[in-house]
Structure formats: structure tokens, C-alpha cells
Amino acid sequence: MGSRFPELRNDLLLRTARGEKVERPPMWVMRQAGRYLPEYHEVKGNRDFFECCRTPSVACALTLQPIERYAGLIDAAIIFSDILVIPQAMGMEVVMVDKKGPHFPHPLTGPEDPQFARVMARDVDVRAELGYVFEAVTLTRRRLEGRVPLIGFCGAPWTLLCYMVEGGGTKLFKEAKTWVFKHGEASGKLLQKIAEVCVEYLAQKVVAGAQVGMIQVFDSWAGELSPASFKQFALPYLTYISDNLPRRLSELGEQPVPMTVFAKGAWYALEDLCKTTYDVIGLDWLHDPAQAYEVAQRYSKTLQGNADPGVLYGSHESISAVVENMVSGFGGGRQGWIANLGHGITPFVNPDDLKFFFEEIHRQTGAGR
Ligand SMILES: Cc1c2[nH]c(c1CCC(=O)O)Cc1[nH]c(c(CCC(=O)O)c1C)Cc1[nH]c(c(CCC(=O)O)c1C)Cc1[nH]c(c(C)c1CCC(=O)O)C2
């Protein structure tokens, strides 16, 4: 299938994900195609956010922006889309409110909500509902011309449940906690349903051309759960995805792809995540690189992360210091580390400061020597 696309010229990310020794650490950042880039605003213009996601030429153009700006420094592209396309495919309405974030006009209010029965009963035709994502992936794989691999992603079941029942971002998690702690059985069914849609979605992304790429599962709200609740409401569904994606890919005649899990805030779960079939564990900045590396090495897992995104608002000296702490903690960067931030890059970062971050990683890992 790979022959449909130009040959990959930079496979540093894939070799690192497989645990091989490498000449330097690969690097990219979460949300690298986003609002801190002036060219993002130029292309997006007045278009609605989800309209951008649904228009393959726009999604492709946005995906390529950081690849062009940071050519020679950046080692992966991530397809421009959003984790909330899955709730949309499951029949829920989601809009992006400017400067506020995602909004569900009709969140799932409880197991008695007729919408819940509809969501559960719906046989989601992933290829039909999310065909626009797969088209964007195929187009982007061609336009990348083998420069770097393309990462496909989805939201994790727990994080998606939060959005589907809260209706948007939240500080209290009142609805999500009510669901899992009052309606445990219905929550389990919903989490499982989401996990099944995620597997099919990721598999179809690989078919569409993320092959020779990677997959990342974002559990952005994992840190809202206690260690015990994480084991109950997040981990089983993350595991379902990583155990079943390879099976589904093989049914579709595709090779397995490396998989990353990013459970933000779940520092306590590092060892549990190392025991799963994910190849790469993403870390936020609450982890000490050296301590995390010591654990991951015991399980031969690769780590990804984990600079505080906020350091990019700081001085070059501060950026250098954070890079130094990562490079020494993550074993020098020749094995088991994908350099990244500990979460998405934030608006108002000066793109030249991200360039400096990348250059520092090159410099401090002795790239080119
Ligand atoms: C929780 C979550 C969402 N979306 C996503 C997550 C998981 C990662 C994380 O925790 O950050 C994932 C995501 N969203 C976006 C990407 C694109 C690929 C990339 O460059 O990383 C990815 C990987 C584009 C986006 N998704 C969004 C934007 C900004 C849209 C805009 O205003 O132009 C982009 C570029 C909007 C979005 N989408 C979401 C929120 C909460 C928001 C609003 C808040 C914010 O803007 O930071 C849901």
C-alpha cells in the first residue's frame, strides 16, 4: 500500500518509536499547526474551525505550514483536525465558539436522555461520516512528498465522554463525575462505544495514508481522575484501542503502526501505561525526565515530551535550561526519546522562539556531529 505515496525520506520518528538507536532525537510539537502562526490566521481567514477540518485542501495546507516554516528541524506532521470529530460522527452537534472553544448545544444529560439511546444505538459509518478526514490525510501524504511521517490521532474515550456530557471545557467536571460515579454502567457502555469508534477511525486513517506514520491517542483530561478511577474509567479503554487497532489493521490488509498514548496529568499511571501495547508514552511537564526515563527504560518504551509549553514565553536562557534538563534526563537523546512539549503550543508564542527550542535540541544533542 505504501507505494501509493512518495517514499519516506525522514523516518527518525518511526525508528525512535520502535526503540532503535538514532543519530539525534526526532522532534515535533503538539498543536504545531495553530494560532501562534501568522500563516494559520491567513489561511483560516473567517472560516469556521470545523469547516477548515472538513475541507481537505485547507486541512492539508494548515498541516504543512509548520513543516515548511521549520524545514530541516521538524520530524513529523500531524494532520489538522480535532478530537471532537468523533462525537460529531456519533450524531452530536459540536460548534467551535471563537475565543471560547468547543461547544455542544445539546450535551448528554444522563442515561435517560433520549439522545443517549440514539448515540448508543447508532451504527457509526466511520468511512461515510469522517470521509473528509481520510481525504485530507491522503492529500497531505502526497503533498508531504516523503519529507516527514504523518501522525494521525484521536481523543481517548474518557476525554471524549467529558466533552460529550459537559458540552465543552469545564473546571468542575460536575457532569462527567456525575456520569461515572452515579451512572457507572451507562458510562462504561458509552466509553466502550467511543473506544470502538476510535479503533475504526484510526484504522481508516492508516488506510487513507497515515501508514508509515504514527497514531496518537490524546487523553487530555486524564489528570482529573484519581489513580483508582483512571484504572476504572480511562485505562481499560485506552488499552482496548491499542490492543484492537493492530487486529483491525490486519483485517484491512495493513501493517501495524507505532502508537502513542498521551494521558495528560496521569503521572501516577506511567508504569501502567508502560505495561500496555502502546509504543510511546507522552509525558506532560509534571514529570521529571530522568525519573520517567528510568521507568520507561525498564519496559523498553519510548517517551515523548515534555517541556512546559509556557517556557516558550520565556527567555532563551530559560528555553536552553529546559532543553538541557530534558536531554540529560532522557539519556542524551539517542534512544527512547521524542522531543516535544508537555502539551500543545499555546497562542501568542513567537514562532522564532519555537525555532530556537528546536535548534537548542539539535545543538545540545550534538546533531550533525
Ligand atoms: C482537548 C482537545 C481538543 N482538540 C484536541 C485536543 C487534544 C489535545 C489537547 O489536549 O490539546 C486535538 C487537536 N486539535 C487540533 C489539533 C491539530 C493538530 C496539531 O497541530 O496538533 C489537535 C491534535 C487543532 C485545533 N483545535 C482547536 C484549535 C484552535 C481553533 C482556532 O481558534 O483557530 C486548533 C488549531 C480548538 C479546540 N479543540 C479542542 C479545544 C479544547 C479547543 C479550543 C481551545 C484551544 O483553542 O486551545 C478540543
TrEMBL record:
Pathway entry: Porphyrin-containing compound metabolism; protoporphyrin-IX biosynthesis; coproporphyrinogen-III from 5-aminolevulinate: step 4/4
Location of the Uroporphyrinogen decarboxylase (URO-D) domain: 26-35, 151-167
CDD domains: URO-D (cd00717)
Main location: cytoplasm
Superkingdom in the source lineage: Eukaryota
Localization per Swiss-Prot or TrEMBL: Cytoplasm
InterPro entries: UROD/MetE-like_sf, Uroporphyrinogen_deCO2ase_HemE, Uroporphyrinogen_deCOase
Molecular function via GO: uroporphyrinogen decarboxylase activity
Top EC class, one word: lyase
Catalyses which reaction(s): uroporphyrinogen I + 4 H(+) = coproporphyrinogen I + 4 CO2; uroporphyrinogen III + 4 H(+) = coproporphyrinogen III + 4 CO2
A Pfam family this chain is assigned to: URO-D
Keywords: Cytoplasm, Decarboxylase, Heme biosynthesis, Lyase, Porphyrin biosynthesis
Family: Belongs to the uroporphyrinogen decarboxylase family.
Record-linked NCBIfam families: hemE (TIGR01464)
Function in brief: Catalyzes the sequential decarboxylation of four acetate groups of uroporphyrinogen-III (octacarboxyporphyrin) to yield coproporphyrinogen-III (tetracarboxyporphyrin) with the formation of intermediate hepta-, hexa- and penta-carboxylate porphyrinogens in the heme biosynthesis pathway. Acts on a number of porphyrinogens, but only coproporphyrinogen III can ultimately be converted to heme.
Protein's recorded name: Uroporphyrinogen decarboxylase
Organism taxonomic ancestry: Eukaryota, Fungi, Dikarya, Ascomycota, Pezizomycotina
